[in-house]
Amino acid sequence: MCDSTEAARREMVTEINSVEGERAQLEAEHGQVWNTTELQTDYSVVGFMAPFVVVVRKADGVKGSLLFQHSPRFYFDFKAA
Question: Which residues span the domain enclosing 31?
């Protein structure tokens, strides 16, 4: 199977993980940030393809996506679909 987004996603993963993003820095750039436990409280995870995770917000059923960094693992930049 050919994934036409793979090269762009790999670039994004490299960029996102090139600097260890601290929570305060990510919040300043993207607004609300979630760790894994917080993510599980607020969202149901549908799937992922790094650096994206597809989610459904539990509060209102809105489907969307978040970006994530690997270490420390933080999720950020929610975009409704």
Answer: 6-80
The pTM is what? 0.89
Residue 1 included in any domain:
no
**Alpha-carbon distance 29 to 58, whole Å?**
24
SS (H, E, C) 68-80: EECCCCEEEEEEE
Q: Are 58 and 42 in contact (CB under 8 A)?
A: yes
Does residue 77 register a pLDDT over 80?
A: yes
Residues forming beta bridges with residue 76, ordered by sequence position = 33, 67
Count of domains forming the chain: 1
Strands across the sheet with 33-34, in order? 33-34, 74-80, 63-69, 52-57, 43-49
- Percent share of the chain, pLDDT over 70: 100
Query: Largest alpha-carbon pair distance within the chain?
Result: 39
